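Cross-check.
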Amino acid sequence: MKRADPPSSGVLVRRIEVAEILEQLDDEQLGRADRGRLLARLAAALASGARHAGARALLTGRALADTVAELAPQVPVRDLATLREHHDGLTGEALADVLVENAARTTAGIGAAGGALAAAQLSAPPSLALAPVQVAAETVAVVLVELKLVAELHVVHGQVPPGGSAQQAAAYLHSWIGKRGLDLSGPGLGLSAVVATAARQQLRGRLVRRFGRNLSTLAPFLAGAVAGAELNRRETQSLGDALREDLRRHLPHRR
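Predicted model, tokenized:
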């Protein structure tokens, strides 16, 4: 999942710009103001990349699913040696603990920044129309942070799926959709298994529900920042806990 495959005919985003923004958003040391500026840039990039219906296209389940599937192969996933190096030699459950904690902190930071940005938009009527697009951008950013967590938890447990970036991204998306670990003894999951079958409907459904919950960031003043941070923290923590439990219970090969 380090190198993107060629664009599909359904490209919705300026991939290079968006990938750079997402990489910066994933920085655990980033402040709220900087995250807010990056979210505003991400919203603008996503809106400008939407076809036909413009910004409104981003607010549909289909477009959100297309955007996430398009960007998933670009999510940087560290191997086990790099993970251990970045976390003082931790391994096993201790390393998994830190990964979940850091991801929850990052998504909470994105939620807080999104809420603060929404508060500013609510006080400036000309920019209010862009608020739902900003929520869509927040949703995409959070999901991709969680997708990185899913991938790296599989790395920690020795369950890296075979294949190239697109195939691995599809497998991790499948895991994210169901909050379950991958069964590597089963048939392989190609990218089309996520973007062109029943799993696509599941992906759309999860993204639409997440987008709807993230609309809480549009609450007046800074209440949205508090709500967004807590919502994202809980969601990411829940994902990590469920996935780790499934990996421990069902997947025999772990480190």
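Residues 2-13 have pLDDT under 50 and may be disordered. Residues 15-250 form one domain. Passed to J.P. for a second look.
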